[in-house]
Amino acid sequence: MEGSKAIQHEIGGVQNDALRFGLHGVKSDLVGSHPLQSAYESAKKTQEEMKRKVLANTYGTSFPLKMDLDRQILSRFQRPLLPSSMLGLEAMTGTLDEFGFEDYLNDPRESESVRPLDLHHSMEVRLGLSKGPVCPSFM
Q: Which family, according to the similarity comment (predicted)?
């Protein structure tokens, strides 16, 4: 055999397998986030920086570094193929106390318009045998 007989799903850097990955939307490329969302994210970032400064002044400069290492470790912990809830990271950052839209409008991943999880494709992507997102999103 002269070479591998794999079918390329990517042409020019764009995934063109519409049956597997869905149709590509242009709206997400053109429209940015809502101004209120960007203001919320910048305020959240400023609040985290202030919290780090207070902790550094109170407990010493090594304490925020230890918290960063713990955050990095907990953010890497996931289940192999299924989406993880990141309970340890949520407990450390304090987001368990927040009441988000998914708490009263249901998690979007549990919607009827979500494609079922293809475990075989997810494992192929993790092993580098296939290209594309590990977990396809909405239909």
A: Belongs to the POMP/UMP1 family.
